[in-house]
Amino acid sequence: MSVGSRPTEASTGHAGAGLGWLKRVLLGMLTLLFISSGIAHFVYTDAFASIVPDYLPWHVTLVWVSGAAELLLAVGILAPATRALAGLLLIALMVAVFPANVEMALHVERFPALPSWLLFARLPLQGLMIAWAYWVTVSGTRRVFPRAPPGAESRAS
C-alpha cells in the first residue's frame, strides 16, 4: 500500500475495511435501524408479542431474544472483523422474523392503527432489507470466517 492511500480489504485482510462512502452511510443507517428496533422490543414488548404467530410458544421471550439479537448484531456489523458474520446472522434473523410480518398482513383487523397496504408493503420490503444488509456487510468480502492460523490444524490432532 502506498503512502496516503486508503486501506482496502486486500491490504488489511478485514472484510469491508475499504467501504466506499455510500456503503458507510448505509451501514450506519442499518446499524441505527436495528439499534432502534432492538430497543423497541424491550420498550414495546406487548406490541411485538402481539405479532408473533400463535403457533410459536413463548411470545414475550421470543421478542426479548430477537430484540437482544438485533442490538448485538447491530454492534457486530460496525467492526470490520465481525461485519460479514454479523451481517449473515442479521439476515438469518430477518428471515426468522418474517412470519411475524406475514401474521400482521394476514390479520390486519388486529392492527387498526396501521393501514392495511402498509402491512402488505412490509413483505417485499423485508427482501430489500436483506439485500441492503448483504450489500453493506457481506458483499465484496473474500471470506466470512477467518482463516485458521498457520499450524492450527496440526495442533488440533
Q: How would you describe the overall organization of this protein?
A:
With 157 residues, the protein is mainly alpha-helical. It has one domain (19-137). The protein is 64% helix and 0% strand. The chain contains seven helices and no strands. The chain has helices at residues 9-12, 21-43, 45-49, 59-76, 83-106, 116-137, 152-156. Helix 2 packs antiparallel against helix 4 (59-76) and helix 4 packs antiparallel against helix 5. It is globular and about 60 Å long.
Task: Write a compact overview of the structure shown.
The protein is 64% helix and 0% strand.
Please outline the helices and strands:
Elements: H1 9-12, H2 21-43, H3 45-49, H4 59-76, H5 83-106, H6 116-137, H7 152-156
Order of helices and strands: HHHHHHH
Radius of gyration: 19 Å
* Mean pLDDT reading: 85
Q: Any idea how many domains?
A: 1
Low-pLDDT segments, ≥5 res: 1-16
- Tally of alpha and pi helices: 7
As an assembly, this protein is single chain
Ends distance: 37 Å
Number of strands: 0
Apparent shape: globular
**Secondary-structure-derived class:** mainly alpha
User: How is the biggest beta sheet arranged?
Assistant: none
Strand content: under 5%
